[in-house]
Amino acid sequence: AQTVTQSQPEMSVQEAETVTLSCTYDTSESDYYLFWYKQPPSRQMILVIRQEAYKQQNATENRFSVNFQKAAKSFSLKISDSQLGDAAMYFCASFTGANSKLTFGKGITLSVRP
Amino acid sequence: DTGVSQDPRHKITKRGQNVTFRCDPISEHNRLYWYRQTLGQGPEFLTYFQNEAQLEKSRLLSDRFSAERPKGSFSTLEIQRTEQGDSAMYLCASSLSAAPGELFFGEGSRLTVL
To answer: Could you report the average pLDDT of every consecutive run of 10 residues in chain B (114 residues)?
Structure first.
């Protein structure tokens, strides 16, 4: 079974600053993928960034990067130069080939102060 | 193709009535997922299809819930004899099996059971 834990329910960041969202996971599989998804208010969820567990290099997508600590089963998301449009719920999720489904954490609400 | 579409966007029904939701995935996507999301929580997996085959169903999916994907195209999720606890957002997502975990979500169908 997979579990994903996001223990911070809310965070706030000043526009243009950097914020880190935390996530831990647990899986018995060796082949898995980790994701961060963003759900803006009243809009559909979109993929932010993906990390393959077999890759040691941390994934980066423009202002978004991850810190993947495999031994600690930690997967945090760093948002640099925060923008007002980054305000949303962010979900950490894991996926394994064994069951082919995404398992989500409870999410964190990020607010951006102008 | 404009993405994943879901219909209806909102449904209000009385307890005991049946409801059906429809999802039209991105046309070339062979996988289709249904998730349920309650306020302030992460999406919970319900079921998924690869082409027309329903490959996994969550224990959350009681016998009042049924999903189909005829001909591997659109999908329907039916809830019979609705209960107040069924009130939630029902999310549909599609993906390519070659891109594990990279789901494209619709805007969801919000169900309110009175």
So the answer is: 90 98 95 94 94 90 92 94 96 92 96 98
Structure confidence at residue B40 (pLDDT): 86
Dist CA B93 CA B28 (whole Å) = 13
Q: Is A2 on the interface with B (CB under 8 A)?
A: no
Cα-to-chain-centroid distance, residue A34: 8
Grouping H, G, I as helix, E, B as strand and the rest as coil, residue A85 is helix
Distance from CA of A16 to the nearest CA of B (A): 26
Q: What are A28's two structure tokens?
A: 């018995």
Per the model's pLDDT, the better-predicted residue between B83 and A56 turns out to be: B83
* Residues B68, B51 contacting (CB under 8 angstroms): no
For residue A91, give the nearest of B4, B42, B101 by CB distance.
B42
Strand B109-113, strand B10-13: pairing: parallel
For residue B10, give the 3-state DSSP assignment: strand
Query: Could you read off the pLDDT of A17-49 as tens digits, one per residue?
Result: 999 999 999 998 888 999 999 999 888 999 999
* 10-39 of B, contacting A, C-beta below 8 A: 31, 33
Which of A4, A21, A39, A45 to substitute to test the interface with B, most B CBs within 10 Å?
A45
